[in-house]
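Sat 14:20. Reprocessing the chain from the morning session after the first attempt stalled halfway. Input below, unchanged.
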Amino acid sequence: MPIGYTTYYAESFEDLRSQQALVAAQEEATPEGTLVLLELNLSESPHPDTLVELNSRLLSAGVPHWAGYSDVVFADSADPKKVYVAWTKSFAWTPIIIGIIFLILPVILSGILWFLIPQPVKDMMMMMGLMMMIVPIMGMVTKEK
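Finished this time. Tokens:
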């Protein structure tokens, strides 16, 4: 949570992807210039580089930050699984923000997990992937006409 602000509890969103329309409707109902705060409760603590990448993508997409702040993405120091996205409403940014979140976080989290997986498991996964490509090709090559 950005320092110096308090939150007003609006509603709990269990699955943000399925409730995207409801979140967007709430933002659209607020007047221009409203400070909007979206709390994300993630299943894993995101890597700091993930948050930096997410922040830069949102800023480059044109999401306006709060006055006095240069970022729109904030990690919660008390709970590392919570991430806040804070922006100033100029038009409905929620669909754009949610789209970027669901494009960036899974890719970066899976990349981080790849580095944590032991090498024998990685080798086995690579071999399974190769087999999934080779078997159909071999079937086409050996098929009689």
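The longest helix spans residues 119-142.
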